[in-house]
Amino acid sequence: MSFTLAIVGRPNVGKSTLFNRLVGKRLALVDDQPGVTRDRREGDARLFDLHFRVFDTAGLEDVTDDSLEARMRRQTEAAIEQADAALFLVDARAGVTPLDAHFADLMRRARTPVLLAANKCEGKAGEPGLYEAFGLGLGEPIALSAEHGLGMDELYDFLRPLIEAKEGALYPDEDDAEAEADSGEEDEGEEAPRGPVQLAVVGRPNVGKSTLVNRLLGEDRMLTGPEAGITRDSISVDWTWQDRAVRLIDTAGLRRRARIDDKVERLSAADSKRAIDYAQVVVLLLDATLGLEKQDLTIARTVVEEGRALVIALNKWDAVEDRAVALRQVENRLERSFPQTRGIPVVALSALEGRGLDKLMRAVFQAYEIWNKRLATAPLNRWLQAVSAQHPPPAPGGRRIRLKYMTQARSRPPTFAIHCSNPDDLPPSYLRYLENQLRLDFDMPGTPIRIHLKKQK
Ligand code: GDP
Ligand code: GDP
User: How far is the CA of 346 from the centre of ligand 2 (A)?
Assistant: First the structure.
C-alpha cells in the first residue's frame, strides 16, 4: 500500500490546483465557481524524489437534504481516516471563514498527521490570511501557492519523514550523516529545508542574463528537469551546484507562457515580476560598466517587498576599468536605497569569462540560509528585554508602551510577532530600531525582516 495524502478544505481554496501540480496532469477540473466539483480524484503524485498517492476530497454536487456541514463532515472524516496524512488548505486571500473553522475542528480531532497550509500566498495579498490561519489551532501554517509552486519544499519536509516511517528510508546511507549534522546546531531551531533552492536571475536587457545562465548550467552539468508534476509548464530547470539542488527559473519560459495564456505582449518588467514570484533567491544582474540605475533599484525593491532573498551581481567585471570605484558606487547606492535591509550581498563576476561563479553561488546559498533562519523563542525574548531596556519605547501620554513577548512566526523571510500593550502608538522609528538590532544581533544581513505587532493587554 503506498502512502496516501488527502487534500482537504472548503470549496475554492485551490485543492484541484494543488492536485494538478502534484499529479502533473490536467486530471481535475479547475473552476472559479464554488461547489462545481466532481468526483473524488486520485492520482500518483510526485514531489521531488517522493512518490505517493494523493486524493482530494469529493465535491459537493450531490445535493441531499443534509446540511452542508453534515456532508462536509462525512467526507472529511472519511478522507482523513483513509489517508496516511492530510493537507488542510485555507485560502489566505479570502481569510479564515466559519467553514474553515468548522473543518479545523474536525482536523484537530483526527489521529492522522495534519499539515495546515495557507494557499494563494504568492505576493503580499496572502499575508493577513496567513496570520489568521494561526488561530485555527493547528500549529504554524505553511505559506503555499498551488498556482506558483511555492511552499513545495515545506510540504516535502512534512511528508518525507512520514513516508519514510511507512515505507522505509529513501536513502539509508544518508541518515548517519544527518544525525551528525543535527547534533551540531541546536539553538537555532530547524535546519534549512532540503528542497531545491528556487533561483531567478533578473535584470535589464543586455546585462548578460543568458550568458550567465548558460555558464551556470554548462553543457557538462547535470540537467534533471523539467520534471512532471513540478515543472509541468517547463518554466524551470533543475540542476545541482556542488551537490546542492537548484531550480533555476527560466524567465524566457515564463514569458512564452504569459503570451499563450493572456495573448498579450508583456514588458520585461512583468517578466521579472513573475520570476520573482516563483523564486526564493533572486540574483539581480547588473552591467558593472553602467552601475546601479533607477530601473535596477525598482526591481531590487520589488524583491525585498515580496520578501525574497536578494543577491546583487555585477557582471562584465572584465570590462570595468576602476573596480574599486565601481564597487563602492554600487554599495553606497544600495545602502542609501535600502537602509532597512543592510548587508545585501554584492558579487562581482564575468559571465563571459566564467569568473566569480562560485562566489555568486556561495552568496546565493548563504542568502538562502539566512532567509530560512529560525530563532528560538527563549533567546528572542532575552534579546527583546535587553534592547527595550537599552532604549525604552516611548511613553505617549505618560504611559510607557510595553513590549511583552516575541516569537518568530515564520521564516522565509524571517517574520516576527511582538506582543505589546499599544501597538498603534509605537512609532515606525522604534520598529526600525528593533529591526536593525535584530538583524545585527542575530546575524541576518541582507534579508528582508518583518515584524508584526500584536496587541496584548
Ligand atoms: P478547489 O475548489 O478547492 O478544488 O479549488 P480550485 O483548485 O478549483 O481553485 C479555485 C480558484 O483558486 C481557481 O480560480 C484557481 O485558479 C485559484 N487558485 C488556486 N491556487 C491558487 C494560488 O496559489 N494562488 C491564486 N492566486 N489563486 C489560486
Ligand atoms: P541578456 O539580455 O541579459 O540575456 O544579455 P546577454 O547574455 O544576451 O548579453 C548581452 C551582451 O553582453 C552580449 O553581447 C554578451 O556577450 C555580453 N556579455 C555578457 N556577459 C559579459 C561579461 O561578463 N563581460 C563582457 N565584457 N560582456 C558580457
Answer: 19
Q: Which residue minimizes the CA distance to atom 17 of ligand 2?
A: 208
Which amino acid appears at position 428 of this protein? Answer: P
**Chain centre distance of CA 371:** 9
208 is in an annotated binding site: yes
Residues in the chain: 457
Nearest protein Cα to ligand 1, atom 2: 12
pLDDT band at 196 (very low <50, low <70, confident <90, very high): confident
- Interface ipTM: 0.56
C-alpha cell at 352: 563571459
Q: Where are the alpha helices (DSSP H) in 111-151?
A: 127-134
Strands (E), 216-255: 236-241, 244-249
Spacing, Cα 117 to ligand 1 middle (Å): 13
Burial 76-103 (b: 16+ CB within 10 A, else e): beebbeebbbbbbbbbbbbbbeebbebb
**CA of residue 208 to ligand 2 center, whole Å:** 4
Beta strands in 267-335 (DSSP E): 281-287, 309-315
Q: Which ligand is nearest to the CA of 125?
A: 1
Domains in the chain and their CATH numbers? Answer: 4-167 (3.40.50.300), 197-372 (3.40.50.300), 377-455 (3.30.300.20)
Q: For residue range 13-28, what is the model confidence (pLDDT) as tens digits? A: 999 899 988 987 544 4
12 is in an annotated binding site: yes
pTM of the model: 0.58
Q: Which residues contact residue 182 at a Cβ distance below 8 angstroms, ignoring those fewer than 6 apart? A: 191
